[in-house]
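=== Structure Prediction Worksheet ===
Name of assembly: unnamed complex
Input type: mixed (protein and possibly other molecules)
Chain count: two
Listed entries:
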Amino acid sequence: MKAFLILEDGTVFQGTSIGSTREVISEIVFNTSMTGYLEVLTDPSYAGQAVTMTYPLIGNYGVCHEDMESIKAWPDGFIVRELSRTPSNFRSDDTIQNFLKEQDIPGIAGIDTRALTKLLREKGTMNGMITTNENYNLDEILPKLKEYKVTGVVKRVSCKEPIHMPNTGYKVALMDFGAKANIANSLHKRGCDVTIYPAMTTAEEILAANPDGIMLSNGPGDPKECVEIIEELKKLYASNVPIFAICLGHQLMALATGADTHKLKYGHRGANHPVKDLKTGRVYISTQNHGYVVDESKLDSNIAKAAFINVNDGTNEGLEYIGKNIFTVQFHPEACAGPLDTAYLFDRFIGMMAK
Amino acid sequence: MPKNPDIKKVLVIGSGPIVIGQAAEFDYAGTQACRSLKEEGIEVVLVNSNPATIMTDKDIADEVYIEPLTAKAVEQIIIKEKPDSVLPTLGGQAGLNLAMELEEAGFLKEHNVRLIGTTALTIKKAEDRLMFKETMEKINEPVAASLVVENIEDGIKFAEKIGYPVVLRPAYTLGGSGGGIAHCRQELEDILANGLRLSRVGQVLVERCIAGWKEIEYEVMRDSNGNCITVCNMENLDPVGVHTGDSIVVAPSQTLSDKEYQMLRTSALNIISELKITGGCNVQFALHPTSFEYCVIEVNPRVSRSSALASKATGYPIAKVAAKIALGYTLDEIKNAITGKTYASFEPALDYCVVKIPRLPFDKFITAKRTLTTQMKATGEVMSINQSFEGALMKAIRSLEQHVDSLMSYDFSNLTDDELIEELKVVDDRRIWKIAEALRRNISTELMHDITKIDLWFIDKLAILVEMEKTLKEQPLTEELLREAKRMEFPDNVIGQLTGKTEAQIKALRDEYDIHAAFKMVDTCAAEFSATTPYYYSCYGSENEVIETKPLKKVLVLGSGPIRIGQGIEFDFCSVHCTWAFKKEGYETIIINNNPETVSTDFDIADKLYFEPLTPEDVENVVRLEKPDGAVVQFGGQTAIKLTESLMKMGVPILGTKAEDVDAAEDRELFDEILEQTEIPRAKGHTVFTVDEALKAANELGYPVLVRPSYVLGGQGMQIAVSDTDVIEFMNIINRIKQDHPILVDKYLMGKEIEVDAVCDGEDILIPGIMEHIERAGIHSGDSISVYPAKSLSPKIIDMIEEYTRRLARALHVKGLINIQFIDYNDQVYVIEVNPRSSRTVPYISKVTGIPIVKLATKVITGSKIRDLGYEPGLQRKSDYYAIKMPVFSFEKIRGADTTLGPEMKSTGECLGISTDFNEALYKAFQGAGINLPQHKQIIMTIADKDKEEALDIARRFDALGYKIYASRGTAKFFNDNGIKAIKVNKIDQESPTLLDLLYEHKIDLVIDTPSNGIERARDGFLIRRIAIETGVNVLTSLDTADALVSSLEHAYNNNDLSLVDIAKI
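=== Predicted Assembly ===
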């Protein structure tokens, strides 16, 4: 079946429908990872977005359910050049085609994903529609696309009830703003007793549980939208519990302490982003998935200072809070998909709790 | 960390002559690194014995030594030039070993020279088997269980402990000579016995067999600050068991999930960190196909063939970055030259699929076994880029120039199913074609996978191509179907064949439906950042993104494709120099080529690089878009010349010598007319098509005769026939491939062979020099030792050569380069062959005369006159130096290849000996070629009857030098009868000790074995030559070569005081 990707600037790509055939409007973004499409599909941070994979051959190793980063697929849509018809890997449980259908994710294959990527790079992230309706009417659709705004995604992706992963080590409260499974796993693997809390849990409740450390997770959407969460984070900041934050958690902590965030033209989404540890000068390759960034120029130097920067564009990648046991990064030390180079940061967090 | 200010003058060691396993990739890496060093204001001293390289150009380094790559020569260079540092990681294994030798001898320390890039300890940890194993164990990186054994019993014991099959790797043999996989005790005994004999130190590594596992490679970089990145990973279509150089390789990996990808990536980074490598490194893994188990196969702490491939596949210039790291820079300080925005400390993201296919020399060595093993056999490779694997594979296949353009090109349809299944078990270069045939017959893919261990993903991709063949055959060719076939990169002629249409009809249909190739950029970042470097590949069904360029005149330079015997790196040298010269003349330059190993496919050589097959259809795609003002074909070897006619049909003017004149030189009848006109004699000959015609011609001319196809390279298919039987045999061999052009039968004149390269502007000629071959005519010029300036020609002959060259160049209206081979026979000059194009000798003659021939030829092509370029026309003054080009062979790599030299070229590379003294030049040339005498002062001579008389003098001289001569019965008797002491040794089938036993004792320096003319039928001679080669003994099959060798030995040069020649000062 034919499918169409219509962008808010009027560009139309024609391809083949994959997954669900339902029509969807979403923010169109691209990811440059060459492996890890399943991890991308099950990363809650992609809620409210349709993901384009720039690597053209997707689905080669099928679907290995144990690699899922959450219980379901989150993107609104999936855009690829080619889906492999015969996956091959010893762990493969299923094909990506079936997975997308099962998860009711609409998608489009057979389009020039590089041309699309260039467009997004030049014009910035755009909204778009994936439809199988050949008789689409641009005059009707385009205003709708321009109007569309991603909202309320954190609430949508966060767990509804606390989840406890018992262990004998430090007690960590993990705030689930859309957490990837490997954050909890990385901590649990290091002996931590992890409790995953819904995003809207109050600071009081968290602190009442008397955790050794608090982990703020990644998540989707515009951080400034999370007004209530930011209020709670202010209280957590004031407590003296060690805090480690990733991605959205990093942005929210910055907002809670008076800093600002803004939207990047087309974001950082991939598994090849170099970040530099400003203390040591070491460069690490990191997984990234963010459309917003903390504005370094508006940091209050009495509150926080930059700890990591992106080597490519110089944007902020991490903050160290002055006089506090708080450390936050924009990138993803939990990887999945992507390089494991910065997994040591979980050890650092353990170290912070040991103090 | 910024640049280390203590590094001011760096010695770069090249990799020497091109041999199998060490080819053009090191010229690419070395050239890039030298330019990168010079950019930083470093004075670069270069040593490499290979004159055909770009790196040995005076533009690339400040001081250039084309000297033998021996410790002694390099020591002398260090004493003379006083570099503060040596960069050892650019010259392949040869360069690395040499640097280590100097380091271990304490020479470097003594002369205050440091190794930069990588320390000696690092090199040892990676190279020494035991240290490597210990290092890997220390960081918990798994390696396959192994043991070094010195006898068969220990081998059996260990094999039985770890279980069959086991891999056997003899120590100190190049490219894995003598190794193999043993599946049972019997095989183990056979291979091990051979391996122990072949190993100079009598050691063989017995290793757990991981054949059939997935073979995965990572290219990693690390700087002195400990920052590590991976440039690229690659997956071999051929599982472990086939040398990666002989495997079809895909980048990035296709069948690895992120978990496996990251597991191996982390391992690679752990390894490079533990080894403390500063620069680039290649890590090879075997990954179990159905678990997370893996083994580290090998680590190369230097640039390599794989790093060249990774650079071209990603756009990330590994050698350039490695050179900067060696100077002290860190990855985050080095700009990514492709984007100009990002830094070297990122990992390239590909948004396409890359396929590499090796170019194997079985068309040259018809007696050789086609089997692929852990010992590399490929002479070169092609790479292609596409948005799909299917498309990339199809493009790579047709880039090979081996009469293949689809999965139908090798025909296995005559086999029964059972025979086909048996064939699938044979691991050779035709395996994907066998799989394709099996797919056509619906043999189960599971069975194919069980037999070949090739991943089902790849087999399914081949199935998709086979299904497309079937669809094209059976269904009407709709627009949609044609689009899909082109998306999979089916060439028009193949679509035509399958649909019963002509190629032209398919092209017309494509025009009608507007189905044309689009071009995409290789930008290292999957379009995330805008890139400025114009490096493109074609694909169908996509948007074109090539940017319209400045309104300069555009010239298209056609490259020479994969390195093969007969068409080597020298044509890349010419293509690159021509491109540079056109740039200087104000042209916009465009290169099309498909060889990932070369300098010409570096992204900053031409203004635009198209990485494409060199077929008319693919070239036309570029022409359609770029509309060049002209094309040059005279620098890209036969590959480019073959495209002349097609380019003219496309309406692209051929710059320089006109196509009809090129044709006149190749077409027998036209050429004969020209010779008649210009009154130049040639050996009598005829053109024939059939065996009968050939026999008639041969008998009319009288034996011996030369039989060869027209329009070939490297004398392919050329043979000297002495009888009707020979003629019949040769004609049948030539006609195995359908000939579009007649076959030539010429009277064979056994005279002195002479070669000339000249530049002609249509009127005047410039001859930089005359070269003379040591071997008499009959041995291919590429396999002959070539001497410049010619030494034994009379003034009369020299005048005749100059005059004939002038006449021929004028008659052929040559604008640019011309190469002519003459014979001096009975004080008369005959023409053998004229090539109105660049030749193998151009780089060498340019360097030793200091005359930039390619640049001058390019200027002439763009309209300059020789007289305006500051040169007096005619033969130039002799240089003060003798420069001797010595062929270098790779026989030890090709099982079953006959080493006898003849009119068909067999050498893979060359080295140069240069000196004011002829014999010293000769000595250096032999040294450079690895013929390093004396060792044990014992030689074997087996001489054909017709040569015995002539061999007497050579034997006498070896005897006088104190060499002990062993000889076969007849030869020994003849020598003894003539007063030369020779020890009779039994023939192979007689009782021990025989000639072979003698070789296995590793105490023989040299074998001189002259076979009778025609095809060598004696099993003995063939065996002796093979065993000698495989035990590392030099074999000479021409008395002329032996004569030259003994002359050089008679002068007994002291290794310690070779005279050094800085080429850059000539």
